Amino acid sequence: MTSLRQIALATLAAPLALGLAACGSEPAAEGEAPAGDPVAPVEAPAGTEWVDMVQVTEQDGYLLGNPDAPIKLLEYASLTCPHCATFAQQGMEPLKEKYISTGVVSYELRNQIHGPHDLVLARLVRCGAKEAYHPLSEQVWANLQAVLQPVFDNQDAVQQAMSLPPEQRFVAFADVAGFYDFFAARGLSRDQARQCLSDPKAMETIATNSETQSEELNVTGTPTFFINGRNVGTQSWPTLEPMLQAAGAR
After folding, report:
1. Which of 44, 160, 222, 250 could bridge 38 with an S-S bond, Cβ 3.0-4.6 Å?
2. Quick one: pLDDT at residue 24?
3. What span is annotated as the signal peptide, if there is one (predicted)?
């Protein structure tokens, strides 16, 4: 059974419970952060800023900043995870201003999927230009309760949507959840969003990448961070920043 099929057949209560259970609550390091000497700032190409540069990686992550940065920060996050939202609200501004903008640190975000609502959101933040992925993800986290409340309030309608054929179910899900209005207010048209959600292959790719990479890299909760390939576990911004500094980001 494929990841997408598992998500489609699951009851609504189970994915929501899974999302909360898989969302880490306390910082828990899997390993020590790599240590390094202080790294000098790296100039961006003329007329550009590192914080405006986004690349889609082979692993379907979205890398922000200098792709050749000596310190590479990777986050596995769920768009429905309150602790991921807290990290985004506390950490993204200083991460960009102090570390990404200097070219010393790159930041790659990959989605771990915790249910159908998570999968729909992960597809929608990918639906526009690649440069919109990070801002839209941050907008979801900044408004997380409002984004998810219709899903909780309309469980019967969501279940009916999930019983539709693959090319229809996520289109209908987003309608019930009110996601079209949320994203339209942020520049993604309803027609564009519907087209993205009616592509079962694209939805399958996101779900499969989440499952495969989580198993391969032992990502058991979110947010989970890697610094230069080393799993440092679930962290908050106050615990992660010293790790970046120890790795050489001064």
Report:
1. 250
2. 62
3. 1-28
**Distances from the Cα of 121 to the Cα of 6, 81, 116, 124, 134, angstroms:** 17, 12, 9, 5, 12
The residue with tokens 């989580």 is 214
Sign (positive or negative) of CA dihedral 34, 35, 36, 38? positive
> Which region holds residue 234: left if phi is over 0, alpha if psi is between -120 and 50, else beta?
beta
Q: How buried is residue 145: exposed, middle or buried, by Cβ count under 10 Å (0-12/13-18/19+)? A: exposed
Provide the domain count of the chain: 1
Nearest to 237 by CA among 141, 122, 139, 149: 141
The pTM (predicted TM-score) of the whole model is 0.91
Peptide bond into 223 cis (omega under 30): yes
Give the pLDDT confidence of 49-89 residue by residue, as tens digits: 999 999 999 999 999 999 999 999 999 999 999 999 999 99
- Would you state the structure tokens that stand for residue 210, as one six-digit string? 């989440």
Q: Among candidates 145, 164, 142, 156, which has minimal Cα distance to 87?
A: 142
Q: What is the CATH number of the domain that holds 67?
A: 3.40.30.10
